[in-house]
Specification:
alpha+beta, Uridine Diphospho-n-acetylenolpyruvylglucosamine Reductase, domain 3, Enolase-like, domain 1, 5-stranded antiparallel sheet, 4-stranded antiparallel sheet
Length: 263
C-alpha cells in the first residue's frame, strides 16, 4: 500500500471541498477501495472518510419511492422492515452480497460509485430506474453507469442517497462466484410504472439493460418468455469462469428465474 493522507469529513460540503482540493477519493465502507490499495492497484494521495456524516445514512419511504442514504450499509438494508415491505427485492440484493463482514461494512453508495462489473447494486439501481442523488444534482440510473469502474460522478461529487421507485413486481437472481460472491451473471427484473426493465451485471464490462428480454417480458411476463430469448454473446466477458456464450445462456436462464421469483 502506498502512503496516503486520511481526512475525516464532518459534512457533505466539507467532503466535496476536500475532494476538489486534493483530487483524492471518498472512502465509504472501504470493501473495494482498501483492497485495491493494498494490492497497489489504486494510489489516492488523500482519502476522505465519509463515515462520520450522519446525513448520509438512513432509509425512508417517500411517497412512491424508498430513499436510501449512500452510507447505509448492506446489512441495514437487508434487515430494514421498510425495504422488505415496499421493495423486498432490494433486501434480497443486500442479503446476497459477500459475507457477513462485507455486509456490515460495505455501503450502497460505495458500491455504485465503484461500479464493479460484477457488483449487485448497479443492477438494482438500473433495473428499478432509480435516481442517484448527489450534492450537486440528480442522475437517472441510465445516465449514471458509464463503463468499467466508470460513472457520471465528477471528482468532487458525493453521492448522498439513492431513490428507488416502488415497482409492481421485482426480483434479482444471480449466479455467484463461490469464493467472492460477486455475480458471474446477475439479472434484476422489474415491472415498473413505465414498463418492464431488465438489468444485467457480471456479464459485461459494466451493468446494462437487455432490450430483447424487456421486449419479450413486456408481451408476456412469464418465465417461459424470458427463457426463450436468445441473448447475443458479442461483447460479453470471457475469463476463466465462463465464456461469452456461457454468460449469454445464463442471462436468459436467470431472467426466467427472476420472473418466477417476482411472482
Amino acid at each position: 500500500m502506498y502512503a496516503f493522507e486520511l481526512t475525516r469529513a464532518k459534512t457533505v460540503a466539507d467532503a466535496a471541498a476536500t475532494l476538489a482540493k486534493s483530487g483524492g477519493k471518498a472512502l465509504a465502507g472501504g470493501q473495494s477501495l482498501v483492497g485495491a490499495m493494498k494490492l497497489r492497484l489504486a494510489q489516492p494521495g488523500t482519502l476522505v472518510d465519509l463515515s462520520g456524516i450522519a446525513e448520509l445514512r438512513g432509509i425512508q419511504k417517500d411517497g412512491d419511492a424508498v430513499v436510501i442514504g449512500a452510507m447505509t450499509r448492506h446489512a441495514e438494508i437487508a434487515e430494514s422492515s421498510a425495504v422488505r415491505s415496499a421493495i423486498p427485492a432490494l433486501a434480497g440484493v443486500a442479503q446476497g452480497i459477500g459475507d457477513r463482514q462485507v455486509r456490515n461494512m460495505g455501503t450502497l453508495g460505495g458500491s455504485i460509485a465503484n461500479n464493479d462489473p460484477a457488483a449487485d447494486w448497479p443492477a438494482a439501481v438500473m433495473g428499478l430506474s432509480a435516481t442517484v442523488v448527489t450534492n450537486k444534482r440528480k442522475i437517472a440510473a441510465d445516465d449514471f453507469f458509464k463503463g468499467m469502474y466508470e460513472t457520471a460522478l465528477a471528482a468532487d461529487e458525493v453521492i448522498t442517497a439513492v431513490s428507488f421507485p416502488v415497482p409492481k413486481k421485482a426480483a434479482y437472481v444471480k449466479f455467484p462466484n463461490p469464493a467472492s460472491r460477486f455475480a458471474l451473471v446477475g439479472v434484476f427484473v422489474a415491472q415498473t410504472a413505465t414498463g418492464v426493465r431488465v438489468a444485467v451485471t457480471g456479464a459485461a464490462p459494466s451493468v446494462f439493460r437487455s432490450k430483447p428480454l424487456e421486449d419479450a417480458l413486456a408481451k408476456s411476463f412469464t418465465a417461459d418468455a424470458a427463457k426463450a430469448v436468445k441473448i447475443d454473446a458479442k461483447g460479453l466477458n470471457a475469463d476463466l469462469h465462463g465464456s461469452p456464450e456461457y454468460r449469454a445462456h445464463l442471462i436468459a436462464v436467470l431472467a426466467s428465474r427472476a420472473v418466477t421469483a417476482a411472482g
